Amino acid sequence: MLAISPKLLLALPPEIAHEVAISGLRLFGRLPWRAQPYTCGKRTLFGCEFANPIGLAAGLDKDAIAVAGLARLGFGFVEVGTVTPRAQPGNPRPRLFRLPEHQALINRMGFNNQGVLAMVRRLDALRRRDQLAGTIIGANLGKNKDTPLAEAARDYTLCMEHLHPLVDYFTLNLSSPNTPGLRQLQHGDELSKLLYEVKEMQQRLGQGGAVTPLLLKVAPDLGDEDIERIAEQIVAHELDGLIATNTTLDRGIVAEHRLSDEAGGLSGAPLTSASRCIVQKFRRILPAELPIIGVGGISNVDEAQAMLNAGANLIQIYTSFIFKGPNLVRSLAQNIA
Ligand SMILES: Cc1cc2nc3c(=O)[nH]c(=O)nc-3n(C[C@H](O)[C@H](O)[C@H](O)COP(=O)(O)O)c2cc1C
Which candidate, 60, 76, 77, 53, places its Cα nearest to that of 25? Predict the structure, then answer.
């Protein structure tokens, strides 16, 4: 991967570039020494020790194929997934678009993944080989496209059961815009019912051992009332943290772009202030000790610092990593307070 420059990858069609990068990172992960995160800005949150506050956001390594290679780039944490109980192909291609003028992407991947058992096999092998020296691993969980919303909780709890001994935290992804109806689960009784069931599973799996922290990932397209209701539910169900935000459906900033009408979620620079604003609003109403991971359009030290100042305890990147490459990880990890 390090031999493959971001410029070369950006010359390839987006999804081919993604596949080449994942293959390169998988090989990079096979090098014999253990992957070491940068150790600057250490912090302990929801019981996990983070060597630095910079994480890779979900969606890049959906199947945990390249975890060791990604860890070698120095991330403090890597979130794999979104994984669903059963393998599914996702939406038809093309489904990933670059808007370089805006340092942005539009994607409608639709949770393409090989299913939870494939992820279990890879993470199990990684743990056995003891290849990681302190990189925190999270698993981002989703529901299969053909699982009715009323049965969604079962998909999340099933993934938890399988992955429970292998990851450091779980993220409930209720905020992808590319699985029909998924975002409805962020609201009202549907949210309450789902959180009740996943919390029960978390406690059951943790009996007599370590409880795996449970985080909720939300969309940026939320009104103030939504934010208040979600915060109430997070507290009521004693979740361990929040991740804000996923991609947006809003096209305001990129409206003039020829690709702006492509369906899917927009990420990258157009999201910077919207995600920060959502983090700020949640920070004002959530208990001060409840960790928030800020994600959305962070591409340099100032933006990372601004996200932390808005109330985030950790940050994640995705789109800027695609455009700028692995050097960004070092630059962020070594320069933010
Ligand atoms: C191609 C692509 C695929 C993504 N897939 C997922 C996913 O499977 N699960 C998820 O929770 N977020 C997914 N995301 C959202 C990112 O994790 C992140 O929340 C969002 O892109 C905002 O961060 P960014 O502006 O740094 O990219 C995806 C984003 C992109 C660009």
Answer: 60
